[in-house]
Amino acid sequence: GHNKFLESMGVYLYIKAPRYWWQEFDTYRVGVTKQSCSTMHTLTKSELTQEHFIGQVPEKYLDYINGLISHKKLSEAKSALPESYLQGRLVCTNYKVLHNIIWQRHNHKLPQWQQFIDELYKQVEHPELLPKREELK
Questions:
Q1: pLDDT, tens digit, for every residue of 77-92?
Q2: Which residues of 96-122 are buried (b: 16+ CB within 10 A; e: fewer)?
Q3: CA 28, CA 34: separation in Å to the nearest integer?
Q4: pLDDT for 94-112, tens place per residue?
Q5: How far is CA 109 from the centre of its chain?
Q6: What pTM was computed for the model?
């Protein structure tokens, strides 16, 4: 109850993460708004390469998706995207939500959660308002 003021402290984050991570992030609906980069638009900007994914995608599969894109079969290309495709979103939230995310995800199995938390501590304007690392153990 003593941290209600954290709800009033807005935070904007640009996050680029794999689609499978976003499915878990979507758990946080209260106090969070998101503007995603549409895959329908981003797929047509350039040929997909390994840098568009976390981990390796087989080259033949990458060629297949790029072929769909070049033939303007965007719905099919979008359906064929692996979950490792990196999608960017602008997220508007607050320190209270970030506090909650850190407490809930600090020991999560997916390494992207630890990376996300590490980046929060480095990049937010007031990291002292987030849970202390020693409190999380």
A1: 999 999 999 999 999 9
A2: bbbbbbbeebeeeeeebbeebbeebee
A3: 11
A4: 999 999 999 999 999 999 9
A5: 16
A6: 0.83
